[in-house]
Amino acid sequence: MFWLDRRLDRTCPGDGKVQKTDFVSAIFWLIFAGLVCTLSYRLQLGTLREPGPGFLFFFCGLALGIMSLVMLFSSLRKRGAWTPLALLFKGLNVGKMIFVVLSLFFYVAILEALGFILTTFLLFIFLLKGIERKGWRLSLLTSAVVTVCCYLLFEFWLETQLPQGLLALIHY
Amino acid sequence: MDVFQSILFGLQTALQPINLFYCMVGTFLGTLVGVLPGLGPAAAIAMLLPSTFHAPPTAGIIMLSGIWYGAMFGGSRTSILVNVPGEATAIMTCLDGHPMAKQGRAGPALGMAAFASFIGGTVAIIALTFTGPVLARVALAFGPAEYFGLMIMGIAVLSFLSSSSMLRCLMMAAVGIILGGVGMDTISGNYRFTLGFTYLRDGVPLVAVVMGLFGISEVIQDLESEIRSSPIETKIRNLLPTLKDWADSAWSIIRGTVIGFFLGVIPGGGPIVATFAAYAVEKKSSKHPERFGHGAIQGVAAPEAAHNAAAGGAFIPLLTLGIPPNPVMAILLGALMIHGLQPGPLLLRDAPEVFWGVIMSMYIGNIMLMILNLPLIGLWVKVLKVPYFLLYPLIIIFCLIGAFTLNNKVSDILTMLIFGVLGYLFRKFGYDAAPLVLALVLGPMLEESFRQSLITSYGSFMIFVTKPIALCFLVAAGVFLLIPLVKPRRKGPRMGAKVLGGRAQESK
Question: Which domain holds residue B325?
């Protein structure tokens, strides 16, 4: 089984960093595969003459599980050469990435309530001023211009219906 | 209708003012997407797909197609001037294009890249014009077993050719097939894998997934470090290559075109692989291989011809078989279906104006790209100077709006963001998202073909052996899967770590 993994893993055999990521991802995919197999079984596998809705996915899950086990055992064999997972993110702007991602999820949360214009304007301000540390004038001006242009482009030219949010209340 | 009548019909369609306008918009946006690192054609097409909902179907598909092959043209600008490939397909152009620019030959490099792209693209379109209808007729004889075999081969080829390990690719493909099963089973009417969420009853939205995996994840990755690269400060003159340049590059363009076309047609192949293969062949067949990497014009001409030929060739399986050979074509497949069209052998019969209109518009689009890429090179150089801190918020906004406008649902944005984070983690952990996307699209068709095959054969797997075309495809798939077991790949530079939609910074 291990020669199989060595042959199939063409990128970096023997690299400790990869082995630790392989271990973590193998565990994840193993759990995922187990879940898929369970749910597929409940959907009914049917018979070969009349495959049920869960048929193909059960075997896909099984294949995924087997591949995960191959990866898991292969990474365990090279346990001695593991390096901490944190090295993957060493020297990177992790804080910046996290804040940007969180701001996008927050954008989704308030979009329908506040509406496209206000939410987009606030997002842009946050990205330019909060994340990129640009000046207030540049941030406000750019945010305003981009928000208005996007609104005009999508709402009027492309006739998409962006969330109105507070604007709808004002119209009402 | 014979081929020449069809060509005239297609030209008549393509030359309609509205179609010309959308072609121009598509090629312009495609070049822009190609020039700007951080956004690839997959994410761009996904983002702009909703903007085509109000356009006639032919015009919408023409625009989206223009973005695809326009990005091929545009990607080489940054490769040559900044040594940063605008697209993954322009990686190989960096190797010789940038040294040429440093030697004061930026003009001929840019010019040769444009001409080679034009020639490769045009030849591919001519081949598409004449082989497309033939293949469509052959495809009418395809049954479920043949389609199943073809799709399995496509996944196997993509896994083989991907830079990521085959094990990881196959795992991604399995995940893609599973995700493709979310929603309603068309045969039994049961809902699958919805976990109680009403939102998932319609399945996982492909466009949102693609925008997340290729758009948002790319932006997150770009935030890892500060990007500091500026174009070479040189006056770009003499965009026309010299006669010697043409003499040196002629065979390179021909070889690149042929390699690119065939790799574009095969499901699982694609422009990225085509550029690497063309460059490798060129270097191997050159009398002076030591010049490659130091400004050999063949090193620019071959990959440029290859990727545009592959871009054109990729339309063949999409339009004639209804099988997308790569993730970008998968989004175009989605676009065709959203516009009420069923790609495949019946497209030629049921919507000939779309089939021929799109093909003929590609000739026109190629000419437009020559105009955009040569005389307007100064404009693209200015665009390259847009600071990234302005660019990525714009990309984010377009992704957010694009995801929302798919179905006017905030949950689509959420899906995109979740897959954006997952896509980033996939990259860090060494997984290629392309097999997942291809399998996500092919999954439902794969399952349907598989189940229909078994129902037809009363549960016997021999159907995949007794049908010769299906057997050929499955044997080919088996060969691609077994090659790494027999002959492991040598350690070497990664072949375009990023997928079609993104920039390939890691590739050396």
Answer: 3-143+206-228+238-409
